Amino acid sequence: MQLTLWTYEGPPHVGAMRVATAMRGVHYLLHAPQGDTYADLLFTMIERLPRRPPVTYTTFQARDLGADTAGLFQQAARDAYARFQPQALLVGASCTAELIQDDPGGLAQALDLPVPVIPLELPAYQRKENYGASETFYQLVRALARRPAEGAPRRGCNLLGPTALGFRHRDDVQEITGLLLQLGIAVNVVAPLEASPADLARLGEAAFNVVLYPEVAQQAAGWLQRQFGQPFTRTIPIGAKATQAFVAEVAALAGVPVPPALQARASRAPWYSQSVDATYLTGKRVFIFGDATHAVAAARVAAEELGFAVVGLGTYSREFARDVREAAAHHGVAPLITDDYLEVEAAVAALQPDLVLGTQMERHIAKRLGIPCAVISAPVHVQDFPARHSPQMGYEGANVLFDTWVHPLMMGLEEHLLGMFRGDFEFHEDAPASHLGHASASMAVPEPEPQPDLPEDLPTMAATWAPEAERELHRVPFFVRGKARRNTERFAVERGVMTITVETLYEAKAHFSR
Amino acid sequence: MIPIASATDSGCTDAPVLRERGQREVFCGLTGIVWLHRKMQDAFFLVVGSRTCAHLLQSAAGVMIFAEPRFATAIIDDRDLAGLADANDELDRVVTRLLERRPDIKLLFLVGSCPSEVIKLDLQRAAQRLGQRFLPRVRVLSYSGSGIETTFTQGEDACLAALVPTLPATAQPGLLVVGALADVVEAQFKRLFSGLGIGPVQFLPARQLADLPAVGPQTRYLLAQPFLADTARALEERGACRIAAPFPLGVEGTTAWLRAAATAYGVNEARLQQVTGPAVDRARQALAPHRARLAGKRIFFFPDSQLELPLARFVARELGMQLTEVGMPFLHRQHMAEELALLPAGTRLSEGQDVERQLDRCRADAPDLVVCGLGLANPLEAEGLTTKWSIELVFSPIHGYEQAADLAALFARPLHRRQLLAAA
């Protein structure tokens, strides 16, 4: 049993719903008790889809358990087929139905429906949402993709991975499709988003696959490679540099030249980052957490394209932990692989970063700690479906990243002014950055209390501050004061200094500024 | 029964009810935790369930407003199911860790879920075991919020019913108001009862464990919420006696509810009129503009919170709306007798749900306003129907005189909005 306050991922059948809801002509029959229909509101409220997810819930009750839940399932299957006339039917069980072991796959096969019936085995007590999405997409592809005729011409590529409830999937698809178009590469099928079973049947006609979201599509792409000999892309086009590498990768796969317009600086972000106003971004300490793909990409963009210092990197996707471990090693930080929200909060509180790039969970953590934050990954919130076009991928995506990551920070000039006028009688530490409003004032000031159950490698004995050192500390601008206090105390403890003097403060400053 | 309806019209008392079985587009009883944990301020709700339960609570709670909410899920995993770990030991470990972390918790509810029910994890025994270990610091109780047994607001019923046996005993007479109400509403009702000279009045649930009301054979209780069948039964086992009444929604409902108490306590009609008069006038005045906007409009209720019958009675009688269908998760004829008598005769009532067929009926009716859950609202809006999210009716203070116009506004706003957007 695991104690959970908030979860990063839903159960695996929600992953299956994300695939089914993205597609056309598919229906998902879910053996589930009353209440599991809550999942519909993720799609209708968070993503604001104007249609219901194509899911029928069998809605069994306690009194059915002793009777015939299997019969209920078969009746629901017949009714759902008759009403929705899908081209393919997915069948599966939610966590409770898994326990009663009705075998939805077998029951549905026995009905002899005139469409492909694809059973989903999603172990709800071991796996989570992304696994469910990946497995569902894989099973659909396996069941529906037709082997291309021997010697038939292969044209263009497929875009694999975008689902319903994905973080900016809608906009990424548009962006990458445009990019491929500029390269003269046709998009054969986009899947699962907006694809029908008939579209999946045509997957084999493409020359290669573009995997946009490995969490969802890598498994299916691997199968397509083994079965149909379609190679797939490895570069995730998040950030200007990665987009350039992606362009080179797809051009090579398609055997086309890269047009000059795509070779040169096709994004505004690198220039903005180079402009003098961005100088103040140098070495901003950033903490990153999200799904593996977005977290690794964000770390790369932060370090290489914005000149930030990555001080923490983690993911909740255990399936892709290896990628995050490698990236963390590259950035010289310890990887944080966890789905325990409290652990992430403890890490952020301990690191005191200047910026948090995370999910909606980290947005809440950052808000409580008074740290600027931008959202880079699912789990999603209604705000993550903006009305405007706002991709994360491609050259425009790089521009979006620059804007959304830099705006929560203090404006460059504003930060300088705070430094210059600190101590001014009208300009005290309780005055927050103008764009953060009043709310941050109360949150920015108190330093987070170190939590008792934090993994703390320091001795508990702490040095005390001499009054004059304490006064000096208060002359340090408040937005770096927390860091200064921590560093100085750590420095003192490491050296066995019992009383922190002004000297200790500046020695520590010199030590850590290196 | 208190004679409220005119003697010649028995409303929907004997009306046929369409009973349906099929897909239900309603929450399970776990959802009640979302408001119960705000109401009971030193209680913690630990769901023993699956990742789905945790995900439901998080999605139903909408956003993570609270750093550490007073609810959590102990997620059952493979090791528990395979018998590699003793589920009871695991539960003890989780609870111990939780209570160490949260010394502010005085009352812990172990909340059963679909998976815990199916694997027959005995939470009642677990609660007794843990209670013995943690008393007197923490009281541990259990109830089921599982979807195989409870719908949405029945979770509150199960929770309060679990509390009832633990209430202190009393031989003193007193009035108990049952059902979670907004604090502001509680205060208003307290003033009204005190004006009527009825007392002492206590409320269940109370904000703090220490303030839980006492109950005994001299206790009379009024239900403030229409979904408390088990709680009522548990109170009656303690000797308490229900005062039958419609529910305090709208001016008429609130007056009838207070009148039922007044009659039971021998307070005469003149005193009732005198005490409620100013609030009644105020509320009627505030309702008038909403009535002008809503009168004659046709409304369709999907089943959701069990508040549908009293709400339908309110919108029909006080706002002049026409009822096309009033759906409810289940019909408790005894508790709803007064409401049924007040509903316009001929109203189509439905119990349970087959959501696809109900949607067919709704589209055929083409009502002006559809009251439905969050899973249906946007899709129906996209089809051109105007909707009101039913969940807001559960989360907003809607009971009593001063909230009558707020309640009407909840129905009026979607129509007003559509009008504004169409006019532009």
From TrEMBL, chain A:
The keyword Amino-acid biosynthesis does not apply. Keywords: 4Fe-4S, ATP-binding, Bacteriochlorophyll biosynthesis, Chlorophyll biosynthesis, Iron, Iron-sulfur, Metal-binding, Nucleotide-binding, Oxidoreductase, Photosynthesis. It comes from the Bacteria. Its EC number is 1.3.7.7. InterPro entries: ChlB/BchB/BchZ (IPR050152), LI-POR_suB-like_C (IPR013580), Nase/OxRdtase_comp1 (IPR000510), P-CP_red_C (IPR042298), Protochl_reductB (IPR005969), Protochlorophyllide_Rdtase (IPR016209). Residues 465-509 form the Light-independent protochlorophyllide reductase subunit B-like C-terminal domain. Residues 12-409 form the Nitrogenase/oxidoreductase component domain. Component of the dark-operative protochlorophyllide reductase (DPOR) that uses Mg-ATP and reduced ferredoxin to reduce ring D of protochlorophyllide (Pchlide) to form chlorophyllide a (Chlide). This reaction is light-independent. The NB-protein (BchN-BchB) is the catalytic component of the complex. This is Light-independent protochlorophyllide reductase subunit B. It comes from Aquincola tertiaricarbonis. The lineage of its organism: Bacteria, Pseudomonadati, Pseudomonadota, Betaproteobacteria, Burkholderiales.
UniProtKB/TrEMBL annotation, chain B:
Protochlorophyllide reductase is composed of three subunits; BchL, BchN and BchB. Forms a heterotetramer of two BchB and two BchN subunits. Binds 1 [4Fe-4S] cluster per heterodimer. The cluster is bound at the heterodimer interface by residues from both subunits. Component of the dark-operative protochlorophyllide reductase (DPOR) that uses Mg-ATP and reduced ferredoxin to reduce ring D of protochlorophyllide (Pchlide) to form chlorophyllide a (Chlide). This reaction is light-independent. The NB-protein (BchN-BchB) is the catalytic component of the complex. Gene3D superfamilies: Nitrogenase molybdenum iron protein domain (3.40.50.1980). NCBIfam families: DPOR_bchN (TIGR01279), PRK02842.1 (NF002768). It comes from Aquincola tertiaricarbonis. The keyword Protease does not apply. This is Light-independent protochlorophyllide reductase subunit N.
